[in-house]
Amino acid sequence: MNPISFTDAAAAHIKNMLENNPKALGFRLSIKKTGCSGFAYVPDLITEIKHDDIHFEAQHNLPVYVDPKSLEFFEELLIDYVVEEGHGLKQKRLVFVNPKEKGRCGCGESFTLE
Asked: What percent of the chain has a predicted confidence (pLDDT) above 70?
């Protein structure tokens, strides 16, 4: 079983980004300490594979790489892609749904873990 799940919308969006960036080899996810709550997700397209990253294929043959130090925080993580409309603007973004999250800061950029 893969450590991270993707909705079809998220996998298709990331796959499209990879296809539009020929140097990209895959999607990488890690977390870093930051913000007012403690941690932030760091999604990235990679052009170089780190030798200790954990690799798996998600739907749409999406190559995914995970920082092994972050893996314990990603069990049961779901990544979605949403389009939000409001005030005549469209905001498209990845959304991280993690049952291990205990709380988020007011701006939504950082989170705390169990």
From this structure: 86
